[in-house]
Write a structure and sequence with these properties.
Number of strands: 37
Helix content: 10-25%
CATH superfamily of the largest domain: Metallo-dependent phosphatases
Shape: globular
CATH class of the largest domain: Alpha Beta
CATH architecture of the largest domain: 4-Layer Sandwich
CATH topology of the largest domain: Purple Acid Phosphatase, chain A, domain 2
Distance between the termini: 76 Å
Length: 647
């Protein structure tokens, strides 16, 4: 009865406050995937940058607000984790109850209207998350994370967070008359957080499908008087068919009746943009998906998302009659110049945290005999992956001593996290020979993953590598002399290199698995000459493979991996294992230094008369002397260069 009364009053409030209006112009602004890049500062390179940072996006926010009478500002999530500043606040000098997280010291003065939770918000655990967002002066929403309190499967489950909010705002219409508008805001996170952060979440929360929860709550929001509904999914936009419990569900969310605008993210991509021109039901010019205005403004504050709505209530109810979505960059990539000044407020607000982070990242760990870089990590064995694998193997071997698993050989799976592409042509590990500091550890391993180990057969190790080899496009051995090699849609963090075995990748074969881990080409076998200790691998032999929590619990849809294969559930971060390994190696070495050089355990099999090509940072050319199988084709003048593999 109470809900019916509230709904009736809500509708009455809406009607009486929108009568006799004409047109209302409303601008919606979005930031997303800031990953603690509050300042325009690269903590890995320990220098300022003009290519990202909320401090510069603030200039765009202020300009966008100044251009219009009515506006709302939202954040999509993946805010609290992502760089050393986030780690310092969470782990080094942990945020205490009652303290304000530096993210909110910056965002509260900006007057955000609401925010959504991203998957990386859960990386530091629920207690830290709740302690952090308590300092936000704006509401947080999430509709698809429920408490695992025994009621999660009932008709009235307990939400872990507020599923949606109704914001009552007063705006001015085209004639200057004040109009009240009730705006409903609902948020979502990928259900896969239960895999990616299993250790932090299992037994405490459960997740539901994003679209199912939208279909449940959008009508309820409307019944309570919401005249405009804004959906904020921390989710990307996939081109193909999207099923239940999808990680990237935006295409289906755009089909939910009653949703007026979608602010999305997670994929670090840019919508509207040419990359989405061939997607179904997309109008790139207007920035709509299935007719719904939508925007995804990149990552790290490098763009601001803008949706301009025209609302009309001549029918007695406000309705969106026109829209235009766009993204505004803070940096002109073609002209290589900044488009937005850094707002001084940010440094004033978090100077103490910034200086504490600099002190932390400059702490010496060891000394390296050789440079460590990732420019060619996707096409050749690589020092940035090698050193991580060495550390993981050392950690797991120690942990397995005295256990039933001590008898099995230890392998290691690691991936290139910084590999340019959509993150920009400066986004590579590039550490000169010499002192290694904490900032370099965060550069080599950017995520706060925890170290895990799984027990697999030789056959399962092979299939792991087959899935990883999906990052390569098929090369036609009878085709042109130069053919592109890298599938840009394949995340580099899913390209696992497994150390401790030797192998070749035959890219003339089709990919054996699709991106969802389904067997796409059963007859295809890209991995060949897979050997252990110089002999063909025994498919029935068992191996302990060091990895991280994301991969061990199913992240990336790799075949055979899952909780049932985990034999070491370590609490330590992979990064910390790297620190300990380097300190010990530095101490034990006669020269008091470490050698990170790659051991060359894998390669792409040569193709007669064909040279596969790939893009990487132009700065990688300085290391070509260490890679006789890689040749520079041309410098593109935008920070990228085209390279090719030669026999």
């Amino acid at each position: 009865m109470y809900q019916r009364v509230v709904a009736t009053l809500g509708l009455a409030w809406a009607v009486c406050n929108t009568s006799h209006a004409e047109l209302l112009q409303l601008r919606i602004l979005e930031t997303t995937d800031l990953h603690m890049n509050l300042l325009s500062y690269d903590y890995y390179q320990d220098k300022p940058t003009d290519q990202y940072g909320l401090a510069r996006a603030i200039s765009l926010i202020k300009a966008a607000r100044a251009e219009t009478t009515n506006s709302l500002l939202f954040d999509n999530g993946d805010l609290l984790q992502g760089n050393p500043l986030g780690d310092v606040v969470a782990r080094v000098s942990p945020l205490q109850k009652g303290q304000t997280h530096p993210a909110y010291k910056v965002m509260n003065p900006l007057g955000y209207d609401a925010a959504n939770l991203g998957n990386h918000e859960f990386n530091y655990g629920l207690d830290f998350l709740r302690r952090s967002i308590a300092g936000a002066s704006f509401p947080y929403v999430n509709a698809n994370v429920l408490l695992a309190d025994g009621k999660q499967d009932s008709t009235k489950p307990t939400h872990a967070f507020v599923p949606y909010v109704l914001l009552d705002r007063t705006f001015k219409d085209a004639s200057g008359k004040e109009q009240k508008l009730r705006v409903g805001v609902i948020g979502f996170v990928p259900p896969q957080i239960m895999q990616w952060d299993k250790a932090n979440l299992e037994g405490q929360v459960v997740t539901r499908d994003m679209v199912d929860m939208a279909r449940l709550y959008v009508p309820e929001m409307r019944a309570k008087g919401a005249q405009l509904v804004v959906a904020i999914p921390h989710s990307g936009f996939e081109k193909g068919e999207v099923g239940a419990f999808a990680e990237n569900a935006v295409s289906r969310l755009a089909e939910v009746p009653g949703v007026d605008a979608i602010l999305f993210g997670h994929a670090h991509a840019e919508f509207p943009g040419k990359a989405f021109a061939s997607y179904p039901k997309v109008d790139i010019e207007r920035g709509t998906i299935n007719g719904v205005p939508a925007v995804m403004p990149g990552r790290w504050g490098d763009h601001l998302g803008v949706i301009d709505l025209t609302l009309d209530n001549s029918s007695g109810q406000w309705k969106v009659v026109n829209s235009q979505a766009s993204i505004r960059p803070i940096f002109d990539r073609a002209a290589k110049k900044s488009l937005a000044a850094e707002d001084p407020m940010v440094m004033q607000a978090i100077r103490a945290e910034h200086e504490r982070t600099l002190e932390y990242v400059r702490n010496k760990v060891a000394v390296s005999d050789a440079p460590i870089y990732s420019y060619f990590a996707q096409v050749a064995d690589d020092p940035s992956i090698q050193i991580v694998s060495n550390a993981q193997i050392a950690y797991v071997k120690r942990a397995m001593q005295g256990t039933d698993y001590e008898k099995y050989p230890v392998l290691s799976a690691a991936a290139p996290f910084k590999a340019g592409g959509r993150q920009g042509w400066n986004y590579y590990t590039d550490i000169p020979a010499g002192p290694l500091a904490i900032k370099h550890m965060a550069d080599l391993y950017i995520y706060p993953n925890t170290l895990k180990a799984v027990l697999l057969t030789g056959a399962q190790v092979r299939e792991w590598l087959e899935m990883s080899a999906g990052q390569f496009l098929r090369i036609d051995p009878q085709g042109p002399a130069r053919q592109p090699l890298i599938n840009d849609a394949f995340p580099s963090y899913n390209f696992d290199v497994i150390d401790g075995v030797q192998y070749e990748v035959d890219v003339t074969q089709s990919a054996r698995y699709d991106s969802k881990g389904q067997l796409a080409n059963p007859q295809a076998h890209r991995i060949r000459n897979l050997r252990f200790e110089g002999h063909p691998i025994d498919d029935k032999a068992r191996f302990v493979v060091a990895t991280n929590n994301y991969r061990a619990f199913g992240g990336g849809n790799f075949p055979a991996l899952g909780a049932d294969k985990v034999v070491l559930d370590a609490p330590d971060e992979n990064r910390q294992a790297l620190v300990e390994y380097l300190r010990m190696s530095d101490k034990l070495s006669a020269s008091h230094s470490v050698n990170p050089s790659a051991d060359g355990n894998w390669r792409i099999a040569p193709i007669e008369k064909v040279h596969p090509t790939f893009l990487s940072g132009s700065a990688g050319a300085q290391f070509l002397g260490k890679h006789p199988s890689i040749r520079l084709v041309q410098d593109n003048g935008d920070g990228s260069s085209l390279y090719e593999l030669v026999d």
